[in-house]
Amino acid sequence: MDWYLREVIILNNIGKSYVTGSQKLQVLKGLTCNIKEGEMVAIMGSSGSGKSTLLNILGLLDSFDSGEYILSGESMAGLNERAAAKFRSKLLGFVFQSFNLIGFKTALENVALPLYYQSIPRKKRNIIALDYLKKVGLEDWASHLPNQMSGGQKQRVAIARALVAKPKVILADEPTGALDSVTSSDVMKLLREINADGITMIIVTHEHDIAALCDRTIHLVDGLIDLS
Amino acid sequence: MFNRDTWLEIANTVLSNPMRTFLTGLSIALGVFILVVMQGLGFGLQNGVQNQFSDDAVNSIWVDAGRTQLAYRGNMPNRQVKMRNSDMDAMFQQMDTVHAYSRRVRIWGVVMEHEDQQSNFPLRGVDPDHLMLENTTLTDGRYISSRDVDEETKVAVLGATVVEDLYEGVNPIGTYLLIGGVQFRVVGTFDDPASRWENKMAYLPFTTAQSIFRSSDKVDQMILGTGDMPVASTILLSDALLSWFKDRKVVHPDDERGVRIENNNEEYERYQNIFLGIELFIWGLGLLTLLAGAVGVANILAIAVKERTKEIGVRKALGASSISVLGLVVQESLALMIVSGSAGLITGVGLLEVVSPMIDHDYFKNPQVDFRIALVALGILAVVGVVSGLGPALRAVRIKPVEALRDE
Questions:
Q1: Where are the beta strands (DSSP E) in A37-136?
Q2: Alpha-carbon gap, residue B316 to B311, rounded angstroms
Q3: What residues have CB less than 8 Å from B119, skipping those under 6 apart?
Q4: Which of B13, B15, B317 shows the shortest C-beta gap to A88?
Q5: What rounded mean pLDDT belongs to chain A?
Q6: Cβ <8 Å between B318 and A117
Q7: What sign for the dihedral angle of Cα A116, A121, A123, A129?
Q8: B8, B309, B318: best mutation site toward chain A, by most A Cβ within 10 Å?
Q9: Which positions ≥6 away from B180 have C-beta within 8 Å?
Q10: Whole-prediction pTM value?
Q11: Residue B54 has pLDDT above 80, yes or no
Q12: Are residues B13 and B84 in the same domain?
C-alpha cells in the first residue's frame, strides 16, 4: 500500500548547542528533514555550518537538545550510552575520512570487529568478514595490516567494515577526503553499488563532484537547511 | 566475559606496544619479587631463632643460684648462694601445682670408658621431666625414670657424640660404661639437634649423680615446667618464686645475681612480638612496593587509554558498549598484573629454593615462602590490578566517539 518509499530517518526541529566556556554556541537551530529508505543523500555545507554535528547526531554518537529523531521507526530521544551502542551496532555503519582502521588488527579482523560486538562466534565472524572483503575486492589482502595498504584500499576495508553488520544506513564522513580523484571515483562507485542493494547512504562532503553522484543534496547553512 | 576472543583482544593490545608492556610488567614483577624474597628472609630469621628456642621447652622457668652482689642482713657481698635439696622440697610445698620439674647437678669433665675407648665428657644428674624440659629426642632405649631417681640406680643415657666417640658403631644399649670409675648400665641414647653441646653429655639419675659425684646435697639448677599456664600467670609465678627464694636464701631483694630466674615463656613471647613486628614490617614494605607498581600500571594504562582514544571511539562507533570498553581496560590491567606478578612470584620462590640449601647459620634457617602467602600475594595482585585499571577504564568509558573521531 506504500506507493512511496518509507522514511528511514525523520528529523523534526532538531536543536543542538555546545557550551564552550561562558559562550553558548547554537550549532543546529531547529533542523527538519526526512531521508527515505534506499536514498543516497549528500550533506554539504561550509565549515561551521553544522554538518559534522548533524552526522554525529544521525550516527547516535552525540545527543541532541531538542526536537525529534526517528530512526527506522524508533525515537532516538534521550538514549543512554548502552541503548545508543545497541542501535549503532544494529542499524548504522560508519565510514570516516581517515578510515579509522585499528592499526594492530588485520584487514579481516577490522572488518569482523562489529560482529565481535554482536557476540558472533569467531569462525562465523571471519567467514562473513571475508565475504565482505571479497565484495570490496580485497579478499587477497585479508591478512594485511592497514599500514601495508594504500588509502583507497584502506577506505574499501572501512566500507566493508561498515557493511558487515548489515546496517540500514551508512554514514560516511568525507569518505573521499583523503583520496586522490581516481580512487575517489572508485570509492564512490562502490558506495553507489552498495546503495543499489537498498542501503541508505548519507555522505557528508564539501566536494560538488561527489555530491553530484548522489540522489539529492542537503545544503546546510548556519545550522539550518538551505532550501534556496 | 573471559572467553577466547577477549583474551585474543587483550593479547593483541598488550603486544602492540611491547616496550611499554614490558616495563609495566617489570615494575609489578619486581614488586612481587621483593615481597616474596623479603618474606622468605623474614621466615629464615624466624625459623633460625625458633630453632634456637627449640633447645629448651618454651613453657619453662629456670632457677639458678650465683654470687651475691649486695650485702644483706649481716652477709657480705660476693657470697656463693647454694640451693639444696631441702630448698627444693620447701619450694614444692609453696606451689599449688607442679606441672613438671627437674633438678640438675652438673659435673664437668668426667672420664668415661668403654672397653679400650675412653674420653672426657660432662654429665648431668636429672629428674625424668628433664627429657621434656630440655626438648631432648631419645634415639634408642629409655630415659631416666622416677624409679631410677628413687632408688639411685646406676644407669646412664648417652648423647650422640659420646656414643660416636666411645662405641664406634656398636649399639650401646645394655652395655656397661665406667663413669668416673663407677660402672653404669647404658639404658638409652639421645640426639639434641639444636645443641651440639648437649650431645657431648651423659644423663644420670639426679640422686645417683648427686651422691656419687657431688657428695653434698647441693643442687645447681632447677627447671619448672609451666604446662599450659598463660604467660601472665607464669610471670606472676616466676616473680613469686624469685622473692620467695631471695628471702629464704637471705639475698637482698635488689640483688640480681644471687638468685636468678629466667622465664622462657616471657622470653619466647618477647621474641614472638619482635617477629610479629618484623612480619608486619615486611608486609608493609612489600605492599608499598606493590602499590608503587600499581600506581605505575594505572599511570601506563592512563597513557594507553589516552593514546587509544581514537581506537576506543571507533570501537564505540562500531557498537562497543561501555561495559565492553571497561572490561577491555580492566582485564588488560588484570592480565598484566597476574602474568607479571606470577613471573615475580616464581622468580622469587625459585631464588629462595636455590639459595635456601646454601644457607646454614644458627640464626637463619630455611628461608621459604609458604604457599598461602603466595596465594595471598596473587589475590592482592588481582585486587590491585582491578583497582588500578578501573580509573583509566572509567576514563575510556567517558570517551565520546565524536571527540575521538574528530579529525585534527
A1: 40-45, 66-71, 74-75, 92-95
A2: 9
A3: B111, B112, B162, B165, B166
A4: B317
A5: 88
A6: yes
A7: negative
A8: B318
A9: B107, B110, B111, B112, B212, B213
A10: 0.63
A11: no
A12: no
Q: Are A164 and A118 in contact, with CB atoms under 8 Å apart?
A: no
In three-state secondary structure terms, B404 is: helix
The grid coordinates listed for A40 are: 543516497
Question: Which parts of B212-321 fold into alpha helices (H)?
Answer: 231-248, 264-307, 309-317
Chosen domain end from B248, B264, B280: B264
Q: The cell 618474606 sits on which residue?
A: B39
Check: CB of residue A54 under 8 Å from CB of residue A72. Answer: no
User: Do both B18 and B165 map to the same domain?
Assistant: no
- The reply to whether B401 touches chain A by the CB within 8 Å rule is yes
Cell of A222: 548556519
Residues B110 and B240 in one domain: yes
CA–CA distances in Å: residue B282 to residues A41, A136, B4, B113? 69, 62, 38, 53
Grid coordinates representing A126 are 571471519
The residue of chain B with its CA nearest to that of A163 is B318
Asked if residues A9 and A170 have their Cβ atoms less than 8 Å apart, the reply is: no
Taking any CB pair shorter than 8 Å as contact, residues of chain A touching chain B are 52, 56, 59, 61-62, 81-82, 85-86, 88-90, 94, 96-98, 100, 102-105, 113-114, 116-118, 122, 161, 165, 173
| B249 and B293 together in one domain | no
B5 at the A interface (CB within 8 A)? yes
Place of cell 621466615: B43
Q: Is B317 on the interface with A (CB under 8 A)?
A: yes
Residues B217 and B340 in one domain: no
Number of domains in chain B: 2
Q: Are residues B254 and B286 in the same domain?
A: no
Is ipTM over 0.85?
no
> What would the pLDDT profile of A48-107 be if each residue is shown by its tens digit?
788 888 988 999 988 899 999 999 988 998 888 888 888 988 899 989 888 889 888 899
B31 and B91 co-located in one domain = no
Which of A52, A94, A116 is opposite residue B317, by nearest beta carbon? A94
Query: Is B314 close to A102, i.e. CB distance below 8 A?
Result: yes
Q: Which three cell numbers stand for residue A153?
A: 584500499
Looking at residue B213, the DSSP 8-state letter turns out to be I
Handedness of CA B244, B248, B249, B252 (dihedral sign): positive
- Site from A57, A100, A108, A169 to mutate, B interface, most B CB atoms within 10 angstroms: A100
Cβ pair B310:A82 closer than 8 A: no
In Å, how far are B149, B162, B400 from B315, measured between CA atoms?
Answer: 89, 81, 11
B64 with B155, same domain? yes
Instruction: Decide: A111 and A129 in contact? Cβ < 8 Å.
Output: yes
Cell numbers found for residue B197: 653441646
The strand pair at B100-114 and B117-126 is best described as antiparallel
The last residue of one of the domains, among B264, B286, B309, is: B264
Tell me the residue range of the domain where B186 lies. Answer: 60-264
| CATH placement of domain A7-225 | 3.40.50.300
pLDDT (tens digit per residue) in A192-216 = 999 998 899 999 988 898 899 999 9
DSSP for residue A4 = S
